[in-house]
Amino acid sequence: MATPSRPSKAMSFYDIAMLKPSSPNPWKSRLALNFKNVDYSSTMVPLPDVARVRRDLGVDPCRKFADGSDFYTLPILIDPNTDSKIGDSFDIAEYLQSQYPDAGAGELFPPQPLDYVFKPDYPLLVPLSEPKQGEHDEYSRFNMYVDAAFTAHTGLMAYYLPFDPASEAASKAEFVRRAGVKSWDDFEMKGEMRQQQLESLRLMLSDLGKLFLKDTSGPFLLGQQASYADLIVGGWLHMMSATLPEQEWKDVRSWHGGIFGRLYDGLEQFAEVK
């Protein structure tokens, strides 16, 4: 039986509820779904309900905290066309490419070198996805290193997360618990510490930006051709656009000749929130 180019039934996509979508991994999947131009609808889940919803859907956690406890997070994609449930952003991209290879804008994983490495010199509060061995292992390693690079700078963003007022207090309490701090105000980064972290972000983006200079014919790593590697970075750019103070986001867009501003704008064609 031939692989269908498009699903006949709409899929269900689960994201974390915010006033403005701002979670990077769900953004990677949203960009991939729109890239593939498949039918889906979104369910926004309040952060305090994520663990329950994931358990109720029967989707195992895909990551663990350093102490071995389960890390329940989103996205989740449910495809009724194949009775599939996928609970990891990278797995969702691989699933879409495998199941619907010719849909939308085409190939999510075209061959390309992705020689970028970032290793933080301190432990991160949120566990990262482990690289996967397989057909797209270079993309998987790139995903891990990009996640590490941006996660190391989420201190600039966390305080400004646009929580849904209906669950804001409980969401902040969960962040406080996970981070082991005393109150939400401990997340506010300001003064000299913030300036140092912004400079660290600028330098990190300089290293990452070198990959985008190999083909300057367009905003993507492969010039005019978008790939999942661009969507990985785009997920984090969407988090920054929703959380950084306005002037800092403008600065990020302009750094290094405007590489990341052009990438963000180039991905807008895949950024519809459905």
Question: Can you give keywords for this protein?
Answer:
274 residues, alpha+beta, Glutaredoxin, four-stranded mixed beta sheet, two-stranded antiparallel sheet, 8 helices, 6 strands, 42% helix, globular
User: Which percent range describes the beta-strand content?
Assistant: 5-15%
Q: What fold name goes in the CATH topology slot?
A: Glutaredoxin
Structural class: alpha+beta
Low-confidence stretches: none
In the CATH scheme, the class would be Alpha Beta
- The number of helices is 8
- Helix-strand pattern: EHEHEEEEHHHHHH
Counted up, domains total: 1
CATH superfamily: Glutaredoxin
- Average pLDDT for all residues: 93
Architecture overview:
There is one protein chain. 33% of the residues are buried. The strands form two sheets. Strands 2-1-5-6 form a four-stranded mixed beta sheet, sandwiched between helices. A two-stranded antiparallel sheet has the order 3-4. The radius of gyration is 18 Å and the shape is globular. Helices cover 42% and strands 8% of the residues. The two termini are 30 Å apart. It contains eight helices and six strands. Helix 6 runs parallel beside helix 8 and helix 7 runs antiparallel to helix 8 (246-266). It has helices spanning 24-36, 50-57, 89-99, 137-151, 168-179, 191-209, 228-243, 246-266, and strands at 11-16, 40-45, 63-64, 70-71, 76-79, 84-86. It has one domain (11-270): Glutaredoxin (3-Layer(aba) Sandwich), CATH 3.40.30. It has 274 residues and is of the alpha+beta class. This is GST N-terminal domain-containing protein. It comes from Mortierella alpina. Residues 13-104 form the GST N-terminal domain.
